Amino acid sequence: MRTIRVFMLPRLVRRADLGRTACAVVDLIRATTTITAALACGAKRVVPTAGVAEVRRLVKLFGREGTVTAGERGGERIAGLDLGNSPLEHNRESVGGKTVLLTTTNGTRALLAVRGAQRVLVGSLVNASACAEALAQSGCDAAVVCAGTEGAVALDDTLAAGVIVKRLLEIVGPVELDDSARLALAMADWAGDNLLGALRQSAASRKLEKIGLGADVDEVAKVDLYPIVPEAFAREKYIEIIPFYPAVE
User: What is the phi-psi region of residue 167: left when phi exceeds 0, alpha when psi lies from -120 to 50, beta otherwise?
Assistant: First the structure.
């Protein structure tokens, strides 16, 4: 590994730059946390989709009995879907053994934006160390791609990116960082041990608090809750995200 980059928004990523890069996509509040929780709780796969029409198409492909439909717009569950985008909803009882078809405002779009990378991983605080291990083991240059919030840079995603970069540097030692990676690291240093307090200052957190989903913020702040890294693979008709367990020495 020679370089670590952070992209504050998906639109800043040029796909031509990703061919030899392992990317971790971060939408901390809440898509990438929810994907990680779902797979850790036994979901067979998570399939990110751009919208409800795509969810309905994929239900026909996979079969209704083996699928769970999930998604949000504006933070709230989309009417007609089984679950929202809360990591607390995606537990063994609701998703175990099932294919989760997920559409969200920001996170699933960010995942779709980085197709073409050598590896596409799903990062969050709940799997920060495992994500760093997987990036290090890839042997590629690393990038963390933040989903942002409706096209704007998000405090929460930048903070999580900084924590992942910090863990990655502890594994690989000094490498070249771009300016955005240094900014993310500075954000992680600013938050220190009070990640939850820092996250509560974000626009995404305040929005969830207003609609009664403040417990989700507590959940996304739980560092290293899971030892897995979801990894995305392009299939013929969809993108499949399945768990990867990095070897830890």
Answer: alpha
- The answer to whether residues 124 and 216 touch, using CB atoms and an 8 Å cutoff, is no
Provide the residue ranges of all domains of the chain, joining segments of one domain with +.
3-242
What pLDDT score does 70 carry?
Answer: 96
- Identify whether the C-beta of residue 141 lies closer than 8 Å to the C-beta of residue 21: yes
Residue 178's region, left for phi above 0, alpha for psi from -120 to 50, else beta, is beta
**Domain 3-242, second-level architecture:** Alpha-Beta Complex (3.90)
Res 108: pLDDT? 72
In three-state secondary structure terms, 220 is helix
CA dihedral 114, 187, 150, 12 (to 10 degrees): -40
Which residue matches tokens 């779009």? 109
Q: What is the pTM of this model?
A: 0.95
User: What tokens does 33 get?
Assistant: 């946390």
Cα 24 to chain centroid distance, Å, stands at 7
How does pLDDT run across 79-131, given as a tens digit for each residue?
A: 999 999 999 999 999 999 999 999 987 777 788 788 889 999 999 999 999 99
Give the span between the Cα atoms of 181 and 213, in whole angstroms: 30
Q: Which two tokens stand for residue 101?
A: 């078809």
